Amino acid sequence: MTRGIIASVLASTMFGAIYYVVTLMQPLTAQDIFAWRMTLTGPLVTILIVLSGDWPKVKAALRDVVRRPGVILIYLINAANVAGQMWVFMWAPLHGRALEASLGYFLMPLVMVLIGRLYYREPMSRWQMAAAILAVIGVGHELWRVGTVSWLVLYIAIGFPLIFVMRRSFHTAGVGGTWIEFSLTFLLAFSLLVRSGFTHDVLTPQLGSWILALGLISAASTLLYYGASRILPFLLFGLLGYLEPVLLLMVALILGETIGRDEWFTYVPIWLAVIFLVIEGTRTLTRESRPLPHAD
């Protein structure tokens, strides 16, 4: 389990590093960086799945597409959402919106809790209920402060959970379905690179080095993240995932973004809500890992 924890922490750290590295890749646009990242990382996913012995699951997903041709529309919608989320991840730090985007990533697990309660009718614990109330307070303050919540925060906080809802609702979850979505995203990214002439007009040796670094970091983080997901219990894997938005927040502050005095009452309740979810998850994990008493 220790190896899984280390792998998950390293993966989150590398995602944070990507958040910073993209700011060093100008004059490339977010679209260019997205295209390079997915084109370089895409083949790794296939290699990874083959080496892990999960390729039969991909074949099963492809056979399912033949049996249910309409499901390809679901894959296209999800792939478009995945591509959009990855593009936003590149776009935000390039345009001084990294801090704002981090708020969306903090809100995402809270939205997942609310979807579970309202859509799937799953029960909520007291900790989850308290977290939801705190999140409502934070979002409510933002609405009071500026009259709206930015499209960036909403797209990340709501758009990402919708990927999982779609997968669950149309039975496309799992390694096979993820590979199909990733392959469609790869095709989009590669076509963008071809249209841009592989960004040859702005490519320099230094920029080429950063592109290579981006590909290597993305590949390594994908490998570590996938490995951690196979080793760790699901609950612990989910808890460690909360490290990523914390690191993204730190990167935003390193890039010089600041939290305004009137914004603290938006951010702090949402941070506290995430802490409550971590506490609740830790308590559950501790309870489940406690050995059962032996009968004398």
How would you briefly describe this protein structure?
The protein is mainly α and 296 residues long.
List keywords for this structure.
single chain, 296 residues, mainly alpha
Descriptive account of the structure:
The protein has 296 residues and is mainly alpha-helical. It has one domain (2-289). Helix content is 79%, strand content 0%. Helix 2 (30-51) crosses helix 9 (205-231) and helix 5 packs across helix 6. It starts with a helix and ends in a 7-residue tail after the last helix. The mean pLDDT is 89.
How confident overall, as mean pLDDT?
A: 89
What oligomeric assembly is this protein in? single chain
N→C terminal distance: 30 Å
How many domains make up the 3D coordinates? 1
Task: Indicate the radius of gyration in whole angstroms.
Answer: 20 Å
Largest sheet: none
Contiguous low-pLDDT stretches (5 residues minimum) are none
Topology:
Layout: H1 2-21, H2 30-51, H3 55-67, H4 71-94, H5 98-118, H6 126-146, H7 151-169, H8 175-195, H9 205-231, H10 234-240, H11 243-254, H12 264-289
Helix pairs in contact: 1-9, 1-11, 2-4, 2-8, 2-9, 3-8, 4-5, 4-7, 4-8, 5-6, 5-7, 5-11, 5-12, 6-12
